[in-house]
Amino acid sequence: MSGCPIHQSSDRARAFDPFGPEFQADPPGSLAWAREGEPVFYSDVLNYWVVTRYEDVKAVFRDNITFSASVALEKMVPPTPEAIEILKTYAFDLRKTLVNEDEPVHMERRRALLDAFSPAALQGHEAMLRQLVRARVDAIVDQGEADLVKALLWEVPLTVALHFLGVPESDMEKLREFSVAHTLNVWGKPSDDQQEALAHGVGRFWAYCGVVLDRMKANPDGHGWMHDMIRANREIPEIVTDNYLHSMLMAIIVAAHETTALAGANMMRRMLGDRAAWTAVCRNPDLIPNAVEECLRHSGSQVAWRRMATRDTTVGGVPIPKGARLLIVSASGNHDPRQFENPDALDLWRDNAAAHLTFGYGAHQCMGKNLGRMELRVMLEELTRRLPHLELQDQNFHALPNVSFYGVDRVLVRWDPARNPERRNPALRDRNRRFPIGAPDVRVLTRALRVARLDPLAQGVLGLTLEDPEGAPLPAWSPGAHIDLHLPGDLTRKYSLCGENGAWSLAVLREDGGRGGSRWIHDTLREGDIVHTRGPRNHFRLDDSAPAHLLIAGGIGITPILAMADHLRARPHALHYAGR
Predict the structure, then answer these.
(1) 3-class DSSP string for 189-258
(2) CA-CA distance, 424 to 444, in Å (whole number)?
(3) pTM (predicted TM-score)
(4) Which of 29, 284, 318, 347 is most deeply buried (CB count within 10 A of its CB)?
(5) Is the dihedral of CA 119, 122, 127, 129 positive or negative?
(6) How far apart are CA 481 and CA 215, in angstroms?
(7) What is the CATH number of domain 446-537?
(8) Do 563 and 498 form a contact (C-beta atoms < 8 A)?
(9) Could you check whether the bond before residue 21 is cis, i.e. omega within 30 degrees of 0?
(10) What is the pLDDT of residues 98-134, one digit of tens each?
């Protein structure tokens, strides 16, 4: 039984429709109500269980035995008889790929194909990637306006994908049409008439991949991931089968470029829509790796995956029957305040941004994640270096309607070519910054802040108020949050934030028997000095759902409790404090 015979979902949950305008416009925002009050719910409209919180999404991804990926490429709308007949005329036979197969075959195939994704192998694509991005920016740098999707963000990922796969770089516009047809066919909600047109598009895509595959097989010494798979097909045909080759070529052409292209469009929309963030990266390119990661968290292109329960189980304490289908909304998990402090803000210094679920998690995590990271970093680095005065034009943003992926279809920008930095300094065009392959190094993510005030609060307790040197607002924080203060001598100290949300205030107790951090703050720090911080993070979160609260603190431990008491001042609570 896959339905919901016992669990009582709310009216809002039962009526949830991912094809509705709210989810299509803002997937994580449209599920904020669920994250807070009904994190796992059943949708009558969808006939799926919907999972919205970070830890629950991660738990489903982690257990790929209980939660089968076999339905990941299942059509959201059952095919019409006419569409089925059309696909038969193309001998369409898409079966299992790395995305929708189960163990043990999945891991056997995955291991056989991993070598191309090693850091050393990926580094070999960087020079070609940089040359390609530079050429695309060269083509527009003096124009003064462009659609970044058309000029850069779509063509670069597709070209890189074909280069990585070893597929000839031809018919790129045709491949874009094929990708749209595949996405709408699997994850969209086409009408009966649209299904027939899509069936022709998908069928032509399948036939095209067959022709390309035959050409590649005729060149046994070719380079690229698909050639590696062809060789694996000869060596271990029982694992890498003929149909698997054909199915994977079709699936990977879409997966290897579309997710990166959509992520790039979302990234540029968000970065240019937040002038402080854009300016920060232009001034400090070391932020680029984490800026990419934060954009993937905040506005990633991958929204949701689907799974099927192979046994009776529970998710987030909610019983899930065997055979039930689940919509795992990773984009919602990426905005869960239990994992990410102030999750709806774009914070380039967020030191756990790479914990996002946009690449999935566990055995089915995206194999090409580091290639995608490299592409997004190079594109952002080139644009911030050469066109720091870039700005968005007034426009409405649109995305292809489907349940699994999100990305705007154009990003219209403008700039004044007379202000291009390379007109004053031509050498700037050829400069670039290289970043290590993989997740960003959070050790470089220190935020430079100015000491606005120093106030004696009590005997041996000094209050610090911090501000952005440029006057930019600091990220909001929730009661219980703390920051890391980096001090001379490689000392790092954690201090709870207190006072009004929006200001960053700390209370530092002098500890003469410690390692010297608090003594340095009391004796050396002065108003106007610059200090380096990381955070905020919250491992001591206030449970806002309780009807009443009892707060207990002692000594300097009162600082996070005071923030909680301030938050609860209009609600039932009591504060008990023990101190000298």
Answers:
(1) CCCHHHHHHHHHHHHHHHHHHHHHHHHHHCCCCCCCHHHHHHHHHHHCCCCCCHHHHHHHHHHHHHHHHH
(2) 30
(3) 0.92
(4) 347
(5) negative
(6) 58
(7) 2.40.30.10
(8) yes
(9) no
(10) 899 999 989 988 887 888 889 999 999 999 999 999 9
